[in-house]
Amino acid sequence: MAKKPAATKKRAATRPSPKKAGARSRKSSAPARSSRKKYVYLFANGKADGDRTMKDLLGGKGSGLAEMTNAGLPVPPGFTITTEACNLWYANHRHLPKTIEDEMLAAVRRLEQVTGAQFGSTENPLLVSVRSGAKFSMPGMMDTILNLGLNDQAVEGLKRRTSNGRFAFDSYRRFIQMFGNVVLEIPKDAFEHEFEAVKAERGARIDTDLGEEALREVVARYKKVVASRTHHPFPQDPFEQLRMSRDAVFRSWNNPRAKQYRRIYEIPDHIGTAVNVQKMVFGNTGERSATGVGFTRNPATGAREFFGEFLVNAQGEDVVAGIRTPQPINELQKVMPHAYQELRDITARLERHYKDVQDFEFTIEEDKLYMLQTRSGKRTGYAAVVIATDLVAERLLTPKEALLLVEPASLSQLLSPVFDPAEWKKMPVATKGLPASPGAASGQAVFTADHAVDWAQQGKKVVLVRKETAPDDIHGMEVAQGVLTATGGMTSHAAVVGRQMGKPSVVGAGALVIDEKNRVVTVNNQTIREGEFVSFDGLTGEVKLGQVATKPSEILQVLAGKMKAEASDIYQRFSKLLSWADKVRTLGIRANADLPDQAELAYAFGARGIGLCRTEHMFFGEGRIEKVQRMILAETEAERRAALAELLPLQRADFYGVLKAMHGEPVTIRTIDPPLHEFLPKREDLMVEVAKLEGGWGGQKELAVKRALLARVEQLHEFNPMLGHRGVRLGITYPEITEMQARAIFEAACQLAKEGIKATPEVMIPLVSHVKELRDQKVIVDRVAAEVMKEQGVKIKYLVGTMIEVPRGAVTADEVATEAEFFSFGTNDLTQLVFGFSRDDAGKFLSVYQEKKILDRDPFQSIDTVGVGGVVAIACEKGRKARPSLKLGVCGEHGGDPSSIHFFHKVGLNYVSASPYRIPVARLAAAQAAMQVKVGD
Ligand code: PEP
Ligand code: MG
């Protein structure tokens, strides 16, 4: 479960510039002097300065250690240096003020008191571990140092105390190696080379064959490595070791892998890491000692089973490093039954205390168990649903609390077709693109939509591989297992339509070089010819060359009536969780659906209404495009009306189906939006055809037709189609199109009414920037509605409203609202127009913007709350002032994005509208928004 901090916090998530940092440091150090701000928090002997509520300050690990200490659990004593100290260190040119250094020294003294051990003692030396610990878990991304405090004297003390010279010197050599590598940045190889040399000289086969004498020599050699690489002897002063290690951990907050991890999981850069200094306990003193990690439940499946691994006679890093294969945790019962039982009891207690699955680390030293960490365990979407519903059944959580244990976006995993994980792992990753629509896709590569259809008709499973997709590829997308494109971003056509269809899609996989003519794709020196298998995972964006078997998820099988609900445990849990969400949320949930089958599915997923029916998508159905083209090519209004008359029954039938599928819930139908040339063949293709025909390759009649088509295409050609003749501008110039669409809508609604089925259409005019545009179209809609109702003798309740997707429309929302009965924010276009970023081209530079931290996230995926969101807020306020009953919704892609949903809840929308497969995500996110809490907060 990725921990996602609140969007609003993330806005301020950039590290301060040195100038600002100075200002910040002055500001934050001032109270340190006056009110003695605390930077070091102790935990020892059943009492800690901190607790579980202090994750921001102490990090996840530090707050967990404090909480466990307060609960009387066996936690080695220690202290946590706060995240604020880390930020101060950065702001202060990588130094801590003396006051904090003194505070840390006092904490060490206190630790010496409670443990009875001293730094550098030859009798009873204090040894500590130094570990990172940010608010959000970043496993393995930052640095750790163990056995700190060992020096030439202390090692003798450790030998004396443990009566084990081998162990003492093994610990010392481990420490020098770790410190040398992490703090002094000496490559590991330099140490390993010496270790292997000593082993070879002594004929030792494995590490444990080396005795005390040999290890003394290893230590001596390691110290030489340090001296020659750094021109300084290995530091013997434990305080110096501690300061240097602490600073190395602070430094590791900004190592490349930690930064990359934060980017992926959207963890802000400015929060910093805490440092935990803790008395060492040893899992490597012999056969009565061990170390391990585990979960209180299975994090992949959610099953209620103790889950984890351990190693006898080992230190923590051995488990992680994979040098030795750990044993399943249940076997601990056989070798150390007492410690095992105590571990079971403690972790069960922790799970009850935190009311969530715990991911824990432990060490057993000479049969005595110590807890080193506890935190909420990361889990798959599947496991999250199982665990949340189980914890309610076990009465540990209320249904409302359980909703917070599931990250909304992770629900998509439950709907996607699945790969067999073992098979998937076997194949190497060929390339990676943007994970546009989740799901597993595997099939034979085809490079055109027509081929996809042909092949699918022959019963083949195909993956449509395109440079990009366009509306006229829709038939190919429909039959494909998935869609893979080389260009495009998260709101590109392939991505939007892919999500809407629930079609696995990976877009913008830039390494793909597609040669459509020769039907071959190259990717990183490998080639795929048409018909060869390609597979990808729409959740991760990974693409592989080869075949992997997939199957539909159980939930979809139940929704499609192919499986009984009672037969699917996961379906029952999924629908139970969402029914809890429905009780909590105040936002309505609608669907973006264009066709009756999509609407039915959306209803089954829990949508109660359609927020956007893009009518033009209906124009691409079988036998329709020719009629649409005839309408576009018409020279006179009469010709155009004749072509529209042919389209009327087809649209009416679609609207009938969509309205019926929604069982009386409101259905927002948008009048035609895209520029007309999108319905015509490509200009370049037509030029080639005309040239061929002119060369005598065909008949004169065909030539005349193509020439006319080309002439019209040239006439319609636009330099900026997205800013051109589209949206309401089409309805204004061709009112007969609006007329036909309105007639189709009201005839369908009247027909349903006559059949006793309620229908509630809402007619929506796109791209309005001026109230007069809307007024012009509304007059037509109202007139046609009145005519149809009179003809049919039926009364239908309907609304006329507009999309707010042009900044002028938003800023003049008070005027627009005098005509509009509802607003639906088209945040795809609104983002495009507020930023001035072309939604079709921004993919080329947005990743660089994110890398350079100019933008935290792709604003086409997650709403830019300050800029685009600011415009939305203005429109809401002005619109509602002018018309208090104004209904407000959003139908851009952001309507299915959890953090955007939080924003829409806050700004007071009535509903969000999302593609059918994101409806469950939206239901849960809306419930979490209503609780004003986000998972990870
Ligand atoms: C929008 O602009 O947000 C919208 C929903 O319309 P489209 O994506 O069809 O332009
Ligand atoms: Mg739009």
Short characterization:
This protein is α/β, with parallel strands linked by helices. The protein is 47% helix and 16% strand.
Question: Which characteristics define this entry?
Answer:
937 residues; 8-stranded mixed beta sheet; 38 helices; 32 strands; elongated; binds phosphoenolpyruvate
Polypeptide structure, described:
With 937 residues, the protein is of the alpha/beta class. The chain has 38 helices and 32 strands. The strands form 6 sheets. The chain has an 8-stranded mixed sheet with strand order 13-23-22-15-16-17-18-14. Strands 25-26-27-28-29-30-31-32 form an 8-stranded parallel β-barrel, surrounded by 6 helices. It has a 6-stranded antiparallel sheet with strand order 2-1-3-6-4-5, with helices on both faces. β19 (512-515) and β20 form a beta hairpin. α24 packs parallel to α26 and α27 (683-697) packs antiparallel against α28 (700-716). The longest helix has 25 residues, at 637-661. Mean pLDDT is 90; it is low at 1-34. The structure holds phosphoenolpyruvate and magnesium ion. Residues 612, 614, 673, 805, 826-829, 891-892 line the site of phosphoenolpyruvate (PEP).
